[in-house]
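Milestone M4 deliverable, item 7.
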Amino acid sequence: MDMPATPTPPPFLLRVLGLAPAGLRHGLRLALAAWLAFALATALGLPNAFWAAMPIWVVAQASRGLLIERGIWRVAGTLLGAAVGFALLRLLPDPVTSVLALALWVGLCGWGMHRVRGVLSYGVMLAGMTASVVMLPALIVPEHATALALSRVACTLIGVLMVTLVTGLFTPPAPRQDYEAQWAGLAHEVTAQAGQPHDPVRENERLAQLVRLEGQLPLMTAGTLSAHRSRPAIEALLRASVAVLAEWRRLGRRSADDAGRPDRDPVRARLATELERLAAASRALAAARSDAEATTGHLQAQGALPGLAAYHDRTRARYAGLLTGGATLVAALLGLLWPGPEGELMALGVCIFSMVLGSLPMPRAVAPKLLTGVAVGVALATAYRLLVQPYADSGLLPLLLTLVPFLIAGGLARASLRPGIALPALDANMCFMLASQAGMPVAGTAAILHGSLALMLAAALTAMVAWVLPEHPRRHAREAMAALNTGIGRLWASRPPPAGSDDWTAYGARHTLRLAAYWSHVDAGGSSSPQTPGGPLAWFNLGLAVQDLQHLAASEATSSPLARAAAQAALARIQAAVGQPAAATAAASHLRGLAEDLPQDESAARLLLQDGARILHEIAATGAPASSPPGTRP
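Output delivered:
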């Protein structure tokens, strides 16, 4: 069925609104979905029908797969959170004990948002939010609390269904072909670079591309089985690309007369292996575009597609858990002291806003935008309740018509291409529906103003806490270095590692990408320049150097006693220098001395010692205050 053409405003108006023609149509569809969800919930007689329009703004996405997957996880998270909320109310009749249990659950969900992968974190967030939606009204305004909570859960399901039906057919699939083409191009560039002289600028460009493409991975593989099938190949590309860049860097740092013997040089041998794996991962990605799951699985079984180690952001998890759990505890206790709709709205707002900020990588940067959006939404809702709602209580149709201009404005703002408009518009739309109390009986001016101020207070308190709590990119960079140092320290736990072991490569590549994402924040003094010796790959290469020296020290059949002794001495100095940049310089000098003391015919051992010295010098050159957590180094 053909849809009627949407009238296109003049180009000047589109520029003012920050809208493309496609964005205009998308904004109108969002408004229609919100309007229909509210209309259906109202027609069914559900209390607080305005809750049905709220999921529209957060479930709607730029790609169909992400829309479907977020809708699924929103439903799952809503049902789980509701079950937990009702169970806690039944098992813990004492209000204070219930508040403590709710804060613990919300904090656990805040922590869990950063312990799971991809869109699943959205479901975890909703599990925390929904438990608050169920419990806070029952604790603060107990009249009809159960019926109200059930109605809000039903409204959420209506909103998810409506946004999926109205926008799903028109939402394009994720641009996977373009995304996978970027991977293919990157693999070709990395392969080509491996045969050229080392260039630190190009190395940093490739690392930046890897970080950017890895960040898009959850979005591009959401919603369809075929998209998920390509994930192992992409992770194998990530891992192999980091390994190739690291070996390229290591070979490029050698002097012209350090050619060595290729058959005895583990660096060149490993580079050749990683290039083969990079080619295998590229073939697997191409095969995953068709129905070739068996091909991808066969390559994985053969070890041709080793991927990355699992990664959980423990720092963000702790931050989010403390923020969400602590904010919910304080707000709920205040709500018990401030019984009534205003106290409920304040406590519920704190919980929701803290979950939203806690789910973000940089909550401090987003907090002002959230506060702006809440202020706009609350202001519009206050105007609606004071000036419009009193004249819309004569039936369903007048009520629905009064919301049309607000929803259209909200939909267009959400679809704007300007981040300064689109991001605050999300919170503005949500808070407009929450504060407007559309469909509820007309309230007095004092009650309206108190409710609006309660919601603004919730946003201000949450934003202030997010702003005060430490959240610095440099801290993430230091912790990535500490994770790499910890992984290097663990290499001494079983000496030597199995020949061909990929444990360090999988672990090191994962945390090298994390370090590369924050590398510009390593040193405010400028040591993060691409031209400086240190770089994100230095720690990864140090782990490889340790493994090479361990194999040299244990290879009685192929290494002389002199070479094995030098390798053991080098390992002892490296172990003492791990996580201590100041000691790295002295360790580098010691390794150079060990290499110079070996006879010329020990070329392979000399190469490995000189490699280790250069890598330690690179780490020392960063001047970064990275250290392993206490007790992690063997």
